[in-house]
Design a protein that fits this description.
About 35% of the residues lie in helices and about 25% in strands. It is of the alpha/beta class. The chain has a five-stranded mixed beta sheet, with helices on both faces. It has a five-stranded mixed beta sheet with strand order 12-11-10-15-16. A four-stranded antiparallel beta sheet has the order 5-6-4-7. Strand 11 and strand 12 form a beta hairpin. Helix 5 crosses helix 10, helix 6 runs antiparallel to helix 8 and helix 8 crosses helix 9. It starts with a strand and ends with a helix.
Length: about 350
């Protein structure tokens, strides 16, 4: 059996075949940890919320965590901060392992293939320090692990009608990734460790959006900015308000940084664009891509960065939830078919 695993910064998701059906599962990765036997933990119990319990802490995840964090004025955490497995956070490491155990069924007979999309920072995924951790955890479920850039998975999910050829951009919570894809093969890749979380922090810093915990500790309150960016008030088109002007400036710098990284990769791989048509489609996905005007800003910043290769069509993925998983599952099926054909020969 093959399974797709998307380790996003806000949720872990899996997708697999079960006969003629597709089985999709997900767990949120934003969480709140509260010491047990405290007024806050008793308040949660009275609210009828059943937390996870580990090492003397009550753990609340998902929408409950967002609402309680605001009420208690307590900052949230995520399983994979900046796409990394935290070394000194035993709670997060335990939550990661528990979540994967719940999401991935154990295989008793032949080993399966798990295609994994991990928030990117490495052109060569084999040197990603998180890979050893996930290889061990997922190996216990009897799967061979195959890592994939999220942007390549996006392209595989959305570029089937162009023979899996085009440009794919993901604007995620912890990073932005850009892949040049030719017939399903990633020929160039760039990423930056900045995304929605960074943008929210930048806006909160600019607006001096600070709050204090109940014990008087000062922290940057990004929840208000998170809601504002998702609202209709946030726009990159002809920004008029001061906050929208700051948003546009930060977003433009984000896209410029990413394109500069891609330009460096292309200059180091001079033949990466060889064989591509004069124009290829561009597909854009991820939470930040839903910002009003985001794709226009990227297309303008991209300019002539691809040399003689232009953009024939821009495709904005409006339903992002399972797109990366679909691309991972497509890659798993292609790999399985390839190995089956080799065995038959």
């Amino acid at each position: 059996m093959n399974i797709a695993l998307d380790l996003g910064s806000t949720a872990f998701r899996t997708l697999r075949r079960d006969g003629s059906k597709l089985v999709a599962r997900q767990l949120p990765t934003l969480y709140l940890s509260i010491p047990q036997n405290t007024p806050a933990s008793r308040l949660i119990a009275r609210a009828g919320i059943t937390p996870l319990q580990t090492d003397g802490f009550d753990i609340i995840t998902g929408q409950d965590a967002l609402e309680i964090a605001e009420f208690l004025q307590t900052p949230l955490s995520t399983f994979l901060a900046e796409g990394r497995v935290p070394e000194n956070d035993p709670i997060a490491r335990q939550l990661i392992a528990t979540s994967l155990d719940a999401l991935i069924p154990t295989l008793d007979d032949e080993p399966g293939l798990c295609v994994l999309a991990l928030p990117g920072r490495h052109v060569d995924l084999s040197v990603n320090p998180e890979l050893n951790y996930f290889t061990q955890v997922i190996g216990l479920k009897n799967y061979q692990l195959l890592p994939l850039h999220a942007s390549l998975a996006l392209g595989l999910a959305e570029l089937g009608d162009t023979s899996f050829t085009g440009l794919a951009l993901t604007m995620g919570a912890s990073c932005c990734e850009l892949s040049v894809i030719r017939y399903g093969v990633e020929v160039a890749y760039a990423s930056i460790s900045r995304g929605g979380f960074w943008l929210e922090e930048e806006l909160a810093q600019t607006a001096s959006q600070f709050s204090y915990t109940r014990d008087g500790k000062k922290y940057l309150d990004v929840l208000e900015m998170h809601r504002w960016i998702q609202s209709d008030d946030a726009s990159l088109k002809r920004p008029k308000s001061d906050m929208n002007k700051i948003l546009a400036e930060r977003f433009q710098s984000l896209m410029t940084y990413l394109i500069e990284e891609m330009t460096q990769q292309l200059s180091a791989q001079k033949h990466a664009l060889a064989g591509l048509h004069e124009s290829i489609p561009l597909v854009i996905g991820g939470g930040l891509s839903q910002l009003d005007g985001a794709h226009q800003v990227f297309e303008k910043r991209l300019g002539n960065s691809l040399g003689s290769v232009g953009i024939s069509q821009l495709r904005l993925v409006s339903q992002n939830t399972w797109t990366i998983c679909r691309g991972c599952l497509i890659h798993a099926e292609l790999e399985a078919n390839y190995h089956n054909s080799l065995s038959a020969a």
